[in-house]
Structure formats: structure tokens, C-alpha cells
Amino acid sequence: MKILIKLGGTLLDSAESRSRLAWEIGRAAAAGAQITVVHGGGKQMTRFLAERGIESRFVNGLRVTSDETLDAVLKVFAGTVNHELVGAFIAHGVRAVGLTGMDAGLAEAEQLAPELGHVGKPVRSDAALLHLLTGHQYLPVVACVAGDRQGHYYNVNADQMAVACAASFGAKQLLFLTDVEGVRDRSGAVCRSL
Asked: Where are the domains of the chain?
């Protein structure tokens, strides 16, 4: 069974939490599930920027990504957060591979809105690399960075990245593991199913 799991950045903030998640997900992979993980890292990004005296700005829940903060997107999401998570999987014997949406055209994005800067939305996803890796018992771990056809890269909302990848991967299940209560409808009530 193909499963895509989206991990929220708060769940990845401690080594203990990463280890516990890697162990649980690794057990499912060892039982034969073809799993891909997509992760965020908002908490880690906010901390990284604050340590450098850069204030995080948000518009409608999306992080404004300026020229100044674009480099941090790669360092934090594709670098630190991705590698720490891959390391946790490897420590539990899982053959994890760290990726971004830019790798092999996994997720193509376009700029969402000029006022958000380098924030993109997924417009296409090609899961050929995910099929190749999971078909050989590797576990792809995808950071929420995607690019356009000109080679520009964007900070992409990890939930949107997960949905795009799950659809192209043909996932039978899309699981969101996060520290928030759930997705809310227009009235503010938590949706019990989507």
C-alpha cells in the first residue's frame, strides 16, 4: 500500500520525537508499505531567522519569503530539518533518502503571490522518483522546497506539497501528523474527515 505522511515541524523539533516517529514509520515500511514522508519546519525556520535578527512575517498563515530569507529556506528545510529526520530513520535501520521537490522534477511550483515573495504553490508533480525509490525499499523524505522550469526555487506550504505528491504517487492514504487539532471548515469547526 502506498502511503504519504506529512510531518509538521513541531513534531520534528526534538531528537526524541524524530526518533519515535522514525521508529513507528519504519515499522510500517518494514511491513511492506511504500511510504513517502513530506515535512515542514516552520518552527525551526522561525528560530533560525530570529537567531540572525530577522523577523518572520506571515500573510494568511504563509511565511513571507524575501530574497534575504530564501537562502534560509534551503538551509533549514532541505538542510537541517531534512537531514536530522533522515538520520533518525537511518538510526532505526530505515533506508531513507533526503529530497526536495526540485529533485527529478518531483514538484513543480509557481509563485503564489508577489507580496509573499518566494512562496510557491505546487502546479505539477511527477512521482517517478518516488516510485523508483519506494519500489527498491527506500523511504523518500521530501522537504517543502519546489522549483519552476527556470530553476528558481520556492518555499512551498508542506501541506500543499503533501497533497500534490500524494496525488501523483497514487497514495491510498494521506496522513497529516501535526500538533494542531485538525483542519477547520469555514465556521471554525474541526473537520472529522476530508
From this structure: 2-177
Q: At what angle do helices 82-91 and 15-30 cross, to 10 degrees?
A: 60
**pTM (two decimals):** 0.93
pLDDT given for residue 194 in this prediction: 65
pLDDT at 100: 98
Least confident span in 12-21, 141-150, 185-194: 185-194
DSSP string, 111-170: ES-GGGBSEEEEEEE-THHHHHHHHTT-EEEEESEEE-TTS-EEEE-HHHHHHHHHHHHT
87: which 3 cell numbers? 538520520
Whether residue 110 is predicted with pLDDT greater than 70 in this model: the reply is yes
Residue pair 34/139 in contact (Cβ under 8 Å)? The answer is no
- Residues with Cβ < 8 Å from 66, sequence gap 6 or more? 117, 118
Residues 6+ apart with CB under 8 A from 74: 145, 153
Query: Which alpha helices (H) appear in 6-124, and where do they start and end?
Result: 15-30, 42-51, 67-73, 82-91
CATH code assigned to 2-177 = 3.40.1160.10
pLDDT tens digit sequence for 147-178:
999 999 999 999 999 999 999 999 999 999 98
Q: Is 193 helix (H, G, I), strand (E, B) or coil?
A: coil
Task: Count other C-beta atoms under 10 Å from residue 143's C-beta.
Answer: 30
